[in-house]
Amino acid sequence: MPGSGTESIVVDNLSIDMLATLFTSAARAHVLKLFMLDPRRAYYQRQIEAATGLPIRAVQRELERLSALGLLYRHSEGNRAYYQVDMLFPLFPELRGLVLKTCTDVERIRGILSIDESVRLAFLNPDADRVLVVTGAGVRPNLRGLGEVQTEIMTVDEFTAALADPPESLRSMLTAGEDLLGRRDDVVWRRIEAAGFDVRKGEGVA
User: Fold this and answer.
1) Among 61, 65, 136, 196, which residue has the least CB neighbours within 10 Å?
2) Does this model's pTM top 0.85?
3) H or E segment and range at residue 154
4) Would you place residue 148 in the very low, low, confident or very high pLDDT band (cuts 50, 70, 90)?
5) Is 13 helix (H, G, I), strand (E, B) or coil?
Protein backbone atom coordinates (compact mmCIF):
# COMPACT_ATOMS: atom_id res chain seq x y z
CA MET A 1 0.00 0.00 0.00
CA PRO A 2 1.36 3.43 -0.89
CA GLY A 3 3.14 5.12 1.99
CA SER A 4 2.62 2.30 4.49
CA GLY A 5 6.26 1.19 4.48
CA THR A 6 7.58 4.70 5.10
CA GLU A 7 5.06 5.31 7.89
CA SER A 8 6.03 2.03 9.56
CA ILE A 9 9.72 2.91 9.50
CA VAL A 10 9.02 6.34 11.00
CA VAL A 11 6.88 4.85 13.78
CA ASP A 12 9.47 2.16 14.51
CA ASN A 13 12.27 4.72 14.71
CA LEU A 14 10.23 6.96 17.00
CA SER A 15 9.43 3.98 19.25
CA ILE A 16 13.08 2.96 19.47
CA ASP A 17 14.19 6.53 20.18
CA MET A 18 11.53 6.84 22.87
CA LEU A 19 12.52 3.59 24.57
CA ALA A 20 16.22 4.46 24.39
CA THR A 21 15.52 7.80 26.03
CA LEU A 22 13.41 6.23 28.78
CA PHE A 23 15.71 3.39 29.83
CA THR A 24 19.33 4.46 29.46
CA SER A 25 19.88 6.24 32.77
CA ALA A 26 19.66 5.18 36.43
CA ALA A 27 18.90 8.79 37.36
CA ARG A 28 16.05 8.80 34.87
CA ALA A 29 14.67 5.62 36.41
CA HIS A 30 14.55 7.32 39.83
CA VAL A 31 12.73 10.33 38.42
CA LEU A 32 10.33 8.14 36.44
CA LYS A 33 9.53 6.11 39.54
CA LEU A 34 8.65 9.23 41.51
CA PHE A 35 6.24 10.47 38.86
CA MET A 36 4.71 7.06 38.14
CA LEU A 37 3.96 6.37 41.81
CA ASP A 38 1.99 9.62 42.11
CA PRO A 39 1.12 10.77 38.59
CA ARG A 40 -1.57 13.23 39.67
CA ARG A 41 0.90 15.34 41.61
CA ALA A 42 3.07 18.18 40.28
CA TYR A 43 6.62 18.53 41.61
CA TYR A 44 9.22 21.28 41.54
CA GLN A 45 12.91 20.54 41.19
CA ARG A 46 13.92 20.70 44.85
CA GLN A 47 11.14 18.30 45.81
CA ILE A 48 12.40 15.82 43.25
CA GLU A 49 15.96 16.27 44.50
CA ALA A 50 14.86 15.54 48.09
CA ALA A 51 12.70 12.54 47.17
CA THR A 52 15.21 10.84 44.86
CA GLY A 53 18.51 11.81 46.49
CA LEU A 54 19.84 12.89 43.09
CA PRO A 55 22.03 15.98 42.59
CA ILE A 56 20.01 18.95 41.35
CA ARG A 57 21.92 19.02 38.04
CA ALA A 58 20.92 15.40 37.38
CA VAL A 59 17.31 16.22 38.24
CA GLN A 60 17.32 19.17 35.85
CA ARG A 61 18.85 17.09 33.06
CA GLU A 62 16.30 14.30 33.39
CA LEU A 63 13.37 16.71 33.60
CA GLU A 64 14.51 18.37 30.39
CA ARG A 65 14.77 15.04 28.58
CA LEU A 66 11.46 13.67 29.80
CA SER A 67 9.72 16.96 28.99
CA ALA A 68 11.21 16.97 25.49
CA LEU A 69 9.92 13.43 25.05
CA GLY A 70 6.41 14.53 25.99
CA LEU A 71 6.06 12.40 29.11
CA LEU A 72 6.15 15.42 31.44
CA TYR A 73 4.67 18.84 31.01
CA ARG A 74 5.86 21.99 32.72
CA HIS A 75 3.91 24.89 34.17
CA SER A 76 4.93 27.87 36.29
CA GLU A 77 3.48 29.32 39.45
CA GLY A 78 5.22 32.56 40.34
CA ASN A 79 8.94 31.97 39.92
CA ARG A 80 8.70 28.21 40.45
CA ALA A 81 8.40 25.61 37.67
CA TYR A 82 6.34 22.48 38.29
CA TYR A 83 6.46 19.20 36.37
CA GLN A 84 3.70 16.63 36.06
CA VAL A 85 3.07 13.45 34.10
CA ASP A 86 0.97 13.64 30.96
CA MET A 87 -1.22 10.60 31.59
CA LEU A 88 -2.20 10.63 27.91
CA PHE A 89 1.40 9.85 26.93
CA PRO A 90 1.30 6.68 24.77
CA LEU A 91 3.47 4.59 27.11
CA PHE A 92 2.07 5.89 30.40
CA PRO A 93 0.00 2.78 31.30
CA GLU A 94 2.91 0.45 30.54
CA LEU A 95 5.44 2.57 32.44
CA ARG A 96 3.21 2.86 35.50
CA GLY A 97 2.45 -0.86 35.39
CA LEU A 98 6.16 -1.67 35.21
CA VAL A 99 6.92 0.55 38.20
CA LEU A 100 4.10 -0.96 40.28
CA LYS A 101 5.29 -4.47 39.48
CA THR A 102 8.91 -3.79 40.48
CA CYS A 103 8.53 -1.46 43.49
CA THR A 104 8.30 -2.36 47.17
CA ASP A 105 5.02 -3.29 48.86
CA VAL A 106 4.82 0.11 50.55
CA GLU A 107 5.49 1.92 47.26
CA ARG A 108 2.80 -0.17 45.57
CA ILE A 109 0.27 0.84 48.25
CA ARG A 110 1.26 4.46 47.72
CA GLY A 111 0.92 4.10 43.96
CA ILE A 112 -2.56 2.60 44.20
CA LEU A 113 -3.86 5.24 46.62
CA SER A 114 -2.28 8.18 44.78
CA ILE A 115 -4.22 7.62 41.57
CA ASP A 116 -7.62 7.62 43.32
CA GLU A 117 -9.11 11.11 43.21
CA SER A 118 -11.17 10.45 46.35
CA VAL A 119 -8.04 10.03 48.51
CA ARG A 120 -6.88 13.20 50.28
CA LEU A 121 -4.25 11.80 52.69
CA ALA A 122 -2.86 8.37 53.53
CA PHE A 123 -0.80 7.09 56.45
CA LEU A 124 0.99 3.82 57.07
CA ASN A 125 1.92 2.31 60.40
CA PRO A 126 4.49 -0.31 59.35
CA ASP A 127 4.70 -1.77 62.86
CA ALA A 128 1.00 -2.57 62.86
CA ASP A 129 0.78 -3.28 59.10
CA ARG A 130 -2.11 -0.82 58.92
CA VAL A 131 -3.09 1.97 56.51
CA LEU A 132 -5.35 4.93 57.26
CA VAL A 133 -6.97 6.57 54.23
CA VAL A 134 -8.61 10.00 54.52
CA THR A 135 -11.17 10.70 51.81
CA GLY A 136 -13.54 13.39 50.67
CA ALA A 137 -17.12 13.25 51.92
CA GLY A 138 -19.44 10.68 50.38
CA VAL A 139 -16.83 8.83 48.34
CA ARG A 140 -15.10 5.52 48.88
CA PRO A 141 -11.67 4.79 47.40
CA ASN A 142 -10.86 1.76 45.31
CA LEU A 143 -8.60 -0.33 47.53
CA ARG A 144 -8.17 -3.30 45.22
CA GLY A 145 -4.56 -4.43 45.00
CA LEU A 146 -3.52 -3.38 48.51
CA GLY A 147 -3.11 -7.00 49.57
CA GLU A 148 -3.71 -8.10 53.15
CA VAL A 149 -2.76 -4.84 54.83
CA GLN A 150 -5.43 -3.64 57.29
CA THR A 151 -7.15 -0.53 55.96
CA GLU A 152 -9.22 2.06 57.81
CA ILE A 153 -11.13 4.74 55.93
CA MET A 154 -12.16 8.09 57.44
CA THR A 155 -13.75 11.08 55.76
CA VAL A 156 -12.05 14.45 56.18
CA ASP A 157 -14.78 15.50 58.62
CA GLU A 158 -14.39 12.34 60.71
CA PHE A 159 -10.62 12.70 60.71
CA THR A 160 -10.54 16.37 61.74
CA ALA A 161 -13.14 15.76 64.45
CA ALA A 162 -11.08 12.87 65.82
CA LEU A 163 -8.00 15.11 66.04
CA ALA A 164 -9.62 17.04 68.89
CA ASP A 165 -9.34 13.98 71.15
CA PRO A 166 -7.61 11.27 69.11
CA PRO A 167 -8.21 7.63 70.05
CA GLU A 168 -5.08 5.58 70.66
CA SER A 169 -5.23 3.99 67.21
CA LEU A 170 -5.14 7.40 65.50
CA ARG A 171 -2.53 8.78 67.88
CA SER A 172 -0.31 5.78 67.18
CA MET A 173 -0.73 6.24 63.43
CA LEU A 174 0.28 9.91 63.56
CA THR A 175 3.22 9.40 65.92
CA ALA A 176 4.67 6.05 64.80
CA GLY A 177 3.34 6.01 61.24
CA GLU A 178 4.41 7.80 58.09
CA ASP A 179 2.87 10.03 55.47
CA LEU A 180 2.46 8.04 52.25
CA LEU A 181 1.54 10.83 49.83
CA GLY A 182 3.29 14.01 51.03
CA ARG A 183 0.38 16.31 50.22
CA ARG A 184 1.32 18.88 52.81
CA ASP A 185 -0.48 21.68 50.96
CA ASP A 186 -3.82 20.07 51.85
CA VAL A 187 -5.62 22.25 54.40
CA VAL A 188 -6.07 19.19 56.66
CA TRP A 189 -2.34 19.33 57.43
CA ARG A 190 -2.92 22.61 59.28
CA ARG A 191 -5.28 20.70 61.58
CA ILE A 192 -2.74 17.92 62.08
CA GLU A 193 -0.02 20.41 63.00
CA ALA A 194 -2.37 22.37 65.25
CA ALA A 195 -3.10 19.13 67.11
CA GLY A 196 0.63 18.80 67.83
CA PHE A 197 1.54 15.98 65.46
CA ASP A 198 4.65 15.96 63.26
CA VAL A 199 4.18 13.03 60.91
CA ARG A 200 7.31 11.93 59.07
CA LYS A 201 7.26 11.41 55.34
CA GLY A 202 7.75 7.92 54.01
CA GLU A 203 10.93 7.08 52.12
CA GLY A 204 10.92 8.59 48.65
CA VAL A 205 7.96 10.87 49.39
CA ALA A 206 8.50 14.52 48.41
Assistant:
1) 196
2) no
3) strand 150-155
4) confident
5) helix
